[in-house]
Design a protein that fits this description.
Blueprint: E1 4-8, H1 16-27, E2 32-37, H2 50-62, H3 68-84, H4 91-103, H5 108-127, E3 130-131, H6 134-137, H7 148-159, E4 165-168, E5 171-173, E6 179-181, H8 187-197, E7 202-207, E8 228-230, H9 231-238, H10 250-255, E9 260-264, E10 273-276, E11 289-302, H11 312-322, E12 332-333, E13 336-342, H12 350-361, E14 365-378, H13 388-398, E15 403-408, E16 414-420, H14 424-436
Parallel strand pairs: 1-2, 1-7, 2-4, 3-4, 7-9, 8-10
Antiparallel strand pairs: 5-6, 9-10, 11-13, 11-14, 12-13, 14-16, 15-16
Helix pairs in contact: 2-3, 2-5, 3-4, 4-5, 7-8, 11-12, 13-14
This protein binds aspartic acid.
Aspartic acid binds at residues 10, 38-39, 49, 51, 115, 169-170, 184-188.
């Protein structure tokens, strides 16, 4: 039988009303055999995510402040969900165990994981599916490093025994049985692992938006949605800050050739965005999306005959490495080299780094340009078309925007421009307007 894995994020499982929507989504397609859930997220904008409250609880314990009130809020939310769904998932008893563990000084990973654990118990009872605890099958080594293949094997063996199941996202265990979580948003990873282990036809990631949009709707008015995007394009876009999905969720699905479909729990009729491998992708428009990030610093070197000086770039990079500063881009020209760095990495180090550059590289000039924004215009359709760059630059020229830097990745599916941060929004609007109409 074909299998689809459906992962529901925090807002999709925030209360009993949302969980009822999940039931109708899951029962609409018998292939949706395995469901992975997050902890309850926000029901409204000023609400708290359960995971945040659980971490807060642990902080209270660590600071010897009474934690009972916070735990009570969490308890009441779960009890309300359980009783409104009219199921018995044994939640009250679970809270006795959680309190006891808190008193005994349990880890913050354990406490945080209870958000997913309790929710999966309730949702399994409500759907009539088996509850399958991730603790037993998602494996980390003694140092807390995720064990990819061991997890896949353990999950594949276990899931083959179940017709249907609900699996809590976000956590697993180390060999001594201690709970270990992924980084925040990590239920997406669990969903991808379950999809790989069951060789699913698709990994559905249900959230509160109907997939990706071509541009940030806070910048561009009513941007078009993206029907299909390749993993590579997504990487280029998420790299620039447009992540909807946890970065590490892509790898397991991609490796197994499983498409990821971003869907909207509140609008299940929308098809959402499908993320596929390059080979599976339809032709698509010239550009797929535009994303950007503010707050970069460009350090630009000029040195006569630099292009023939052996080791110049290596020395630039080794100085940055000494200061543990990652490089975002490195556009170069004859005798010029720029390094583009997220400004947060330079805060208190910039003057020391510049001093080292002066001393060890003896450049003719070094310029530091701050408040630069990077904008990536990404599309698999641009690799085979000419005139894309000229259209993009003309759009920026017409909008009177000065381009500080240009970088076209070797994949030829991404043109990155650096502009002054004051021009950031306008530049994205101009690029979008130039391409969206004809895309
Ligand atoms: N509940 C966890 C978090 O808020 C994990 C997740 O929802 O994916 O980060």
């Amino acid at each position: 039988m074909s299998t689809k894995v459906a992962k529901f994020g925090g807002s999709s499982v925030a209360d009993d009303i949302q969980i009822r929507k999940i039931k109708s989504i899951v029962s609409a397609d018998p292939a949706r055999r395995f469901v992975v859930v997050s902890a309850p997220g926000k029901r409204y904008s000023t609400d708290n995510k359960i995971t945040d409250l659980l971490y807060l609880c642990k902080e209270h314990v660590d600071k010897h402040v009474t934690y009972e009130q916070v735990l009570q809020v969490i308890h009441d939310r779960y009890i309300a969900i359980e009783s409104n769904l009219e199921v018995d998932a044994g939640i009250a008893k679970e809270f006795t165990i959680i309190s006891q563990n808190l008193e005994e000084g349990t880890t913050s990973d354990y406490i945080a994981s209870r958000g997913e654990y309790l929710n999966a118990k309730i949702i399994a009872a409500f759907l009539g599916f088996d509850f399958i605890d991730a603790a037993t099958f998602v494996k980390f080594d003694a140092r807390g490093r995720f064990l990819f293949e061991e997890t896949n094997d353990a999950l594949a063996i276990e899931l083959a025994k179940h017709e249907n199941g609900v699996i809590p996202g976000f956590y697993g265990t180390t060999p001594d049985g201690k709970i270990k979580t992924f980084t925040r948003g990590g239920s997406d990873i669990t969903g991808a692992l379950v999809a790989r282990a069951t060789d699913a036809e698709v990994y559905e990631n249900w959230t509160d938006v109907s997939g990706f949009l071509m541009a940030d709707p806070r910048i561009v008015d009513n941007p078009k949605g993206i029907d299909e995007i390749t993993y590579k394009e997504l990487r280029e876009l998420s790299y620039m800050g447009a992540s909807v999905l946890h970065e590490n969720a892509v790898y397991p699905a991609r490796l197994a050739g499983i498409p990821i479909n971003i869907r909207n729990t509140n609008k299940p009729e929308d098809k959402g965005t499908i993320i596929v491998d390059e080979g599976q992708a339809k032709e698509g428009g010239i550009i797929t999306g535009i994303a950007g990030n503010k707050d970069y610093t460009v350090i630009a070197f000029y040195k006569n005959m630099m292009s023939t000086e052996i080791g110049f770039i290596r020395r630039v990079l080794s100085i940055l490495e000494e200061y543990q500063v990652p490089v975002e881009h490195m556009p170069s020209g004859i005798d010029t080299l720029s390094v583009v760095i997220a400004s947060k990495y330079l805060e208190d180090k910039l003057s020391d780094i510049l001093e080292d550059f002066e001393r060890k590289l003896a450049p003719d000039t070094i310029d530091v340009i701050e408040n630069v924004s990077l904008i990536a215009t990404v599309g698999r359709g641009m690799a085979s078309k000419h005139g894309v760059a000229s259209k993009l630059f003309k759009a920026l020229f017409d909008a009177d925007i000065n381009i500080r830097m240009i970088d076209q990745g070797s994949s030829e599916i991404n043109i990155i421009v650096g502009v002054n941060s004051t021009d950031f929004g306008q530049a994205i609007q101009a690029i979008y307007a130039a391409f969206a109409a004809t895309n």
